[in-house]
Amino acid sequence: MGAGTEQARKLISDAGASRVFYFIKEIIMSQAEIRNDWTKTEISEIFHSPIMELAFRAASVHRKFHNPNEVQVCTLLSVKTGGCSEDCKYCSQSVRYDTGLKVERLLEHEQVMEKANMAKENGSTRFCMGSAWRNIRDNRDFDRVLEMVKGVNAMGMEVCCTLGMLTEEQAQKLRDAGLFAYNHNLDTSREYYEEVITTRSYDDRLETIDNVRKAGIAVCSGGIIGLGESEDDRISMLWTLSNMEKHPESVPVNALVPVEGTPMEGNKRVSVWDMIRMISTARIIMPQSNIRLSAGRNEMPTSEQALCFMAGANSIFAGDKLLTTPNPNFSNDQEMFDLLGLEPKEAFKEAKHYDVSVS
To answer: Per the database record, which ranges form the Radical SAM core domain (predicted)?
Structure first.
């Protein structure tokens, strides 16, 4: 048990159960601070706390920094599908695995603008473009992507890209074109990383994130659970993210969607409780970040997604496909939002302090 739990018990004993929620709120709010010096022991203590206590603490922290009724709605489009030289053992787009995926060329500018406009009309405020590249090359395709960034930015949407590794100069070109955020996931812990991918190192990933930061672009970085990793690996990944000089503005929490033909096709799907532990812990140690309920949402009923939102998730990917895997469509998400009383978060809106009482 953490120090906060023991403090709460003493206060309850001293003051009586009638004021329990008031005191717990005061303890949690006093602990909700921006820190970049978390220890793995501290994170492990949070992660392994009783799940009801964990979710309550995360929900309270969430309400201090975010409007709990707002969810950032993002759309992810694969602008260049398949043919990737990497050996990520979970990925349908690797040339090393026979997944039945058809390799496609970079989409035309007009196709991307049409998809972006459709996403905006359906309520998305962030549009992310992904390509199956190991790294960006300074060629005509990159120039075309820069034009796509300019086009989406002109629509008033937050524009994000995930294009693999990049240099500081390439990051600056994207920033100059109007890129708002860049996604580059850690995937898992440093300790487990080589069990998942060998064609680039963990430090390669961190270097790309550093280059993104230097260019003044918001960082979107999280990981995947269900890769065969241990709970210690999940904690280690969260430790790396939370101890960055500045926390990622967005932290996607993905549940592996096993793809036939990949080495991880037989992996067991993670439970909603695994997702809640990851989301809650991420929310507590990175309170200002948008915590994104990402891959795996298609297999989660509304009730399970609601629990994730209560635990601190405040961002989703919308649209019927997440790169190459199924995802809930816009109409299903709109029904869920209506049921839960949620609304899309405005574009370019930063986290701030909210005074939401616990009564």
So the answer is: 69-297
